[in-house]
C-alpha cells in the first residue's frame, strides 16, 4: 500500500518559513524559527551535532517524521542552500528527488542519501519518489514554492506545521499564492510544547 505525501515545516507566527534571500539562511531569524529543534537528541544525532540532547514529545515528533519518510522531493532553491550547509552525511538517509532544469548525474552522499535530479516536472519527481519510498511516506521537503506547487496540484495528503513564537515581517510565505478555492483542510491534531505548537491537517479538494 502506497504511503502518504506530506510536508512538515517550521513557520513563524506571521506565516513565513524562510528568509527571502538564501544568504540569510542560518541568520538570526532563521535560527530563532528552528530553535525548537536544535536541542533535541534525535536532531543532534542526525545532524552530527554531538551526543546528548532533550527527550520528550518534540523529540518524538522529529523522530517520527524521519522514520515515516521513505523518500523526499525538493526544489532547486532548497537543494542549492542545503548543498552548502548540510554535513557530508546529509540528514535524509533516503533517496531525494530534486525538481530542476539542471541536468546532473545522481549525487551520492555517505549514510544512504542519494540526490537524483528530475527535469520533467513535479509529477514525475513524485512518481519516482513514490516508487523509491515503497509503503513509506513521501515528504515534500521544500522550499516554499515547491510545496505550494504540490498543494495547488492536489498532490499533498497532509501537512504539519511547527508554529514558532517568532515574527519575520518578510520572507518566503508558506501559502502565498495558494489556490484556496480548490484546497480544503481538516484538522487532525494540535499539540503544544514549551517551544512550539504542532498543527497537523489533512487536505482534500473542495
UniProtKB/TrEMBL annotation:
Any one Gene Ontology BP term: riboflavin biosynthetic process
Pfam families per UniProt: RibD_C (PF01872)
Stored InterPro entries: DHFR-like_dom_sf (IPR024072), RibDG_C (IPR002734), Riboflavin_Biosynth_HTPR (IPR050765)
GO molecular function: 5-amino-6-(5-phosphoribosylamino)uracil reductase activity
Domain Bacterial bifunctional deaminase-reductase C-terminal residue range list: 4-196
Entry protein name: Dihydrofolate reductase
Organism, scientific name: Nocardioides immobilis
Amino acid at each position: 500500500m502506497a504511503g502518504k505525501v506530506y510536508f512538515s515545516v517550521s513557520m513563524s507566527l506571521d506565516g513565513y518559513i524562510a528568509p527571502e534571500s538564501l544568504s540569510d539562511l542560518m541568520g538570526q531569524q532563521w535560527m530563532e524559527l528552528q530553535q525548537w529543534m536544535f536541542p533535541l537528541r534525535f536532531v543532534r544525532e542526525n545532524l552530527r551535532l554531538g551526543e546528548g540532547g532533550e527527550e520528550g514529545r518534540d523529540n518524538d515528533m522529529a523522530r517520527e517524521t524521519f522514520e515515516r519518510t521513505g523518500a523526499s522531493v525538493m526544489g532547486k532553491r532548497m537543494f542549492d542552500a542545503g548543498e552548502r550547509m548540510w554535513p557530508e552525511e546529509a540528514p535524509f538517509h533516503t533517496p531525494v528527488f530534486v525538481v530542476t532544469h539542471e541536468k546532473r548525474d545522481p549525487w551520492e552522499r555517505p549514510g544512504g542519501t542519494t540526490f537524483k535530479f528530475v527535469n520533467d516536472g513535479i509529477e514525475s519527481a513524485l512518481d519516482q519518489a513514490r516508487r523509491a519510498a515503497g509503503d513509506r511516506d513521501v515528504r515534500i521537503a521544500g522550499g516554499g514554492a515547491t510545496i505550494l506547487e504540490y498543494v495547488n496540484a492536489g498532490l499533498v495528503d497532509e501537512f504539519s506545521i511547527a508554529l514558532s513564537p517568532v515574527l519575520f515581517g518578510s520572507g518566503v510565505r508558506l501559502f502565498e499564492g495558494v489556490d484556496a478555492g480548490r484546497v480544503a483542510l481538516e484538522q487532525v491534531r494540535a499539540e503544544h510544547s514549551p517551544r512550539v505548537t504542532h498543527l497537523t491537517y489533512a487536505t482534500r479538494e473542495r
